[in-house]
Amino acid sequence: MTTVQTVRGPIAVEVLGTVLMHEHVFVLNEEVRRNYPHLWDEEAQVESAVTRLRALAERGVDTIVDPTVIGLGRDIERVARINAQVDLNIVPATGLYTYGDVPFCFSMHGPGTPLGGEEPLVELFVRDITEGIAGTDIKAAFLKCAIEDALTPGVERVLAAVAETHHRTGVPITVHTNPKSETGLVAQKVLRDRGVDLSQVVIGHSGDTTDLDYLRRLADAGSYLGMDRFGLDFLLPGDERLATVAALAAEGLAERMVLAHDASCHIDWLQPGVREQVLPNWHYTHLHDDVLPALREAGVTEQQLTTMLVDNPRRYFTPTS
């Protein structure tokens, strides 16, 4: 029986149910939070998170996949405290999120650094997967990395560490990408050159473009397309996101897409109130309340929706060997 690690422990892949493949609980700069505590009310934020996640579960969502890693403020103990109050599977990640350099604490040791040596990131990622995160018994179920506009040396180093960890552990990979710079193709090349089976990779934020040729190239290489930013309308209006998913589904590519919002209970990238004013649809329940009905009207079938929300996540978390 294939199992998937969640915050509440391992579960059978068959019971993942309906899955949103890219949702955060919190996105924070933990150093800022700790040094400016007046910016953060722990109890209020935990209570708000519980309320928001319960609303999502009430819509029939069984699982969220949370790609919050180092660089995005991962605090697995806080997430576990919230998850204990919500009947929802939360699938945690390991990895490192950077668009440029690795953190200074990794800058002197490892490949391409002044002191050289083995890559310390691999050991840390493997530990999260095999032993547990932050001294807990909560294990990461997948790897997360990022490439925004360019393949910097730091970004390539993280991608290489992720590829090596994938080979050692067998867990799948999700990559933050920028379709406007076509960095999904760059990520695929780096990972493929390091022997990664691209069918075990989600190219995140593919839904930020209407360029069907670009999306077909990603899908033809075997990866899943992360159509995972519904509600982030300032990056691409919702009607264009819908039309793109519907067009690809009509071409028979539902088996290569996964759906989500890339939302969170709280993200400190935005000032208080801005998200509600500027991005009123960017929340966990937008997909079930608004997007899925609109996709049905656009001709996407129930079987195709099940494929994107149930079958594809199940395959992604099922090892290929």
Automatic annotation (TrEMBL):
InterPro entries: Metal_Hydrolase (IPR032466), Phosphotriesterase (IPR001559). Binds 2 divalent metal cations per subunit. The keyword Calcium does not apply. The keyword Magnesium does not apply. Zn(2+) 2 binds at residues 144, 176, 205. Coiled coil: none annotated. Keywords: Hydrolase, Metal-binding. One of its GO terms (molecular function) is zinc ion binding. PROSITE patterns: PHOSPHOTRIESTERASE_2 (PS51347). Zn(2+) 1 binds at residues 22, 24, 144, 262. The modification N6-carboxylysine is found at residue 144. Pfam families: PTE. Its cofactor is a divalent metal cation. Belongs to the metallo-dependent hydrolases superfamily. Phosphotriesterase family. This is Putative metal-dependent hydrolase with the TIM-barrel fold. It comes from Saccharomonospora cyanea NA-134.
